[in-house]
Specification:
Helix 4 packs across helix 5. By secondary structure, the protein is α/β, with parallel strands linked by helices.
């Protein structure tokens, strides 16, 4: 069993094609790192960027829950298909010397969507974790956690695996670490705020990389993605009837509103 590696889980040709682009960006930054794909595609044509291609055990929207424990690596980085690796991973895998799992907070933490916890009663300061970038080791505790996550997700019938994940993390004694946002960069407009010594943006993760699958023009360049997010950000503040903090006399005031409906 190899020590380090990355896995993707992509069902359907569109998601597999996205995974190829993501894996190519990873290969450019980490040429020696093993990369595997779990997919339902019948053959491996066009998937040469991956070291191995494995079948998914079952096709469903959260097939990744079936595949996480099937990784052939002692230490695994799972990446969603709508990611791009922007810089070398450095000593990221060394986190697993001390922790079983590492992942980042999700965004939109004021929304009811991200505050859902399956009835666990978690505080606001314990938001959902984003499961699109996960670093984990093949420890007995982590394998048990994955099995429990998969079982409870299926039993509870949630549409989003992060609800079950949040509840499990709240109730579990699993040692997990919260990654800094540069390892799961969901808001690329953060690049506008960061100063030279703040961070190294490493893993980009954006649903806008999938927008061509819904009939919109494809996004292939980071500059185009930043431009789209700047526009979307302004539109969200306007739709809420609030001043954009960048332009407001009091930049804090727009955030101190009651929770949106």
């Amino acid at each position: 069993m190899l020590q380090h590696g990355v896995i993707y889980v992509a069902t359907g040709a569109d998601y597999a094609a996205l995974a190829v682009v993501s894996a190519e960006s990873l290969r450019a930054q980490e040429p020696g790192l093993a990369i595997d794909l779990f997919t339902d595609l019948p053959d491996a044509r066009g998937l040469d960027v991956f070291d191995r291609v494995h079948p998914v055990p079952e096709i469903h929207p959260r097939a990744k829950l079936d595949c996480l424990s099937l990784s052939r690596f002692e230490r695994t980085l799972f990446l969603d298909s709508d990611t791009r690796v922007l810089a070398p991973l450095g000593d990221l895998f060394d986190l697993l010397d001390r922790f079983d799992l590492a992942l980042a907070h999700d965004v939109r933490r004021r929304s009811e969507l991200i505050r859902e916890d399956g009835g666990a009663g978690t505080p606001y300061a314990f938001p959902q974790m984003n499961s699109g970038v996960m670093l984990y080791r093949r420890s007995p505790a982590m394998l048990d956690f994955i099995a429990d996550w998969r079982r409870r997700y299926r039993a509870e019938g949630e549409l989003r695996d992060q609800i079950t994940l949040k509840r499990l993390l709240w109730e579990s004694d699993l040692r997990f670490y919260v990654l800094p946002p540069e390892f799961n960069l969901r808001r690329v407009t953060m690049l506008d705020a960061w100063e030279p010594l703040d961070v190294v943006p490493t893993i980009l993760h954006s649903h806008r990389l999938m927008q061509h699958m819904k009939g919109s023009p494809p996004v292939t360049e980071l500059a185009d993605l930043v431009a789209l997010e700047r526009v979307a950000r302004a539109e969200e503040w306007a739709a809420a009837g609030l001043a954009d903090p960048v332009e407001a006399d009091d930049p804090l005031e727009p955030f101190l509103r009651p929770d949106p409906p």
